[in-house]
Amino acid sequence: MSAAKLAVRLERAQAHLDAVRSYHAKVDKLVTARTPSDPGMVSGIRRTPSVSADASADALLARYARSLDRLSAAERTVEAITKQLDAARAEEGRVPFTRDQIVGADAVKTSTGWRTVRKVNRTTVSVETGFSWTDRIPFDQVLSTYRQGD
């Protein structure tokens, strides 16, 4: 995906994260406001059992847990898109290797790893596969080169 499209996705994800943070802050305020003020409740001694109060407290804690899950998911999404955007910007700024730079290399690095060079063609590099055939890799997919003497 292009860096421009990723930037738009990141902007939307940031806006979503801000909204989720705001919602979580509201729920957090509700939870902290419901902290027991009766000293008997803190010690575990309840004056009178209340089914409706227990149900209300359970619902509030479940709401808090869901908002916390949504918050962490939104943060992970923003982090993942940021990494993708950084990689896309680095790829856009990368200058592809030329034939002269690859000639004499013993190995080339691609997105799949290091491969041993068999032959440098006009626009591709033939690399060993470990089988009876060779793969051709275009120069723009070469990330790095290795020479034995370097």
Automatic annotation (TrEMBL):
Protein's UniProt name: Uncharacterized protein
Source organism per UniProt: Microcella pacifica
